[in-house]
Amino acid sequence: MDGVPPVLDREALSRAPPHAVREAIRERRWTGNTKRLALGFHQANVTIVPERHAFDFMRFCQRNPRSLPLLDVTDPGDPSPPIAAPGADLRTDIPAFCIYRNGVLAERVTDLSAVWRSDHVAFLTGCNLSMDQVLIEAGIAFPHLVREDAFPAQYRSSLAARAAGVFQGPVVLSYRPVPEAQLLRVIELTSRFPLCHGGPVHIGDPSRVGITDLAAIDWGRRPDPAPGTVPCFWACGITAQAAAEASGIPEMITHAPGHMFVTDLPVSDRSFG
């Protein structure tokens, strides 16, 4: 139909610049998860809290840097992240959001314009999906990189996040099956990127971190590990959503798992300065 922007596919957006990906999301030409989009740029977990809880959440990030490596923080009421993507709009430039109220997932929406307030502060934290280009170039064929139907699985672990103010809860871990022959390479490579969660938190028997059944996922998609792979677990930004549930604060808004904010920050093994 004339005047209606065409729906895009993942391949079309994989090499697109970040602003083009955000524009496609804003115009609803892309509504799916963001794996392999704008390869080479940071994708961010987004957590939005009322200003009265912002200092507590800042300390929660600082005390749990493996789970919540901080990329940017907005000023109260301003939906544009000043470092990560000046001029972008967090209310519209993410495919889907979760709204938690009193520790319960109350609503899933695709636009925050109607609920955004002048006291909202948004935190952008690092994500494993930012490593997609690095892993592709290294020839590491994680399932989500080679199969459209695959996506990493996430689990509440028995590890406890370090509490800060009202925020507490379990560390959420993201699972990837690593071919045994590539294990040392994967550890070395991911450890160089602390803003993408760094190296694995746990390698081997999942029950050692409280995961007794890999099929019983909490987020993501059920894994189908190939023979000859080693279970590896990385810290995950969904730790913030587990904290929303455990803390029971009146309101927390997050990206929907897998539906990240694509930033203008290029992925490198150095922090921003």
Question: What does this entry look like structurally?
Answer:
The protein is α+β, with helices and mostly antiparallel strands. The chain has 7 helices and 12 strands. The protein has helices spanning 10-14, 18-26, 51-63, 132-137, 143-146, 183-191, 239-247; strands spanning 41-50, 70-73, 97-101, 104-109, 120-126, 153-160, 170-179, 202-203, 219-220, 229-235, 252-255, 261-266. The strands form 2 sheets. Strands 1, 2, 3, 4, 5, 11 and 12 form a 7-stranded antiparallel beta sheet that branches. The longest helix has 13 residues, at 51-63. The termini are far apart. The relative contact order is 0.23. The model has no long low-confidence stretch (mean pLDDT 94).
Q: What are its keywords?
A:
273 residues; alpha+beta; five-stranded antiparallel beta sheet; globular; seven-stranded antiparallel beta sheet; 12 strands
The profile of the biggest β sheet is: 7 strands, antiparallel
Q: Helicity level, as a percent range?
A: 10-25%
Mean pLDDT: 94
Order of helices and strands: HHEHEEEEHHEEHEEEHEE
Question: What's this entry about, in short?
Answer:
The chain has 273 residues and is α+β, with helices and mostly antiparallel strands. Helices cover 20% and strands 26% of the residues.
Summarize the topology.
Layout (H helix, E strand, L loop, with lengths): L9 H5 L3 H9 L14 E10 H13 L6 E4 L23 E5 L2 E6 L10 E7 L5 H6 L5 H4 L6 E8 L9 E10 L3 H9 L10 E2 L15 E2 L8 E7 L3 H9 L4 E4 L5 E6 L7
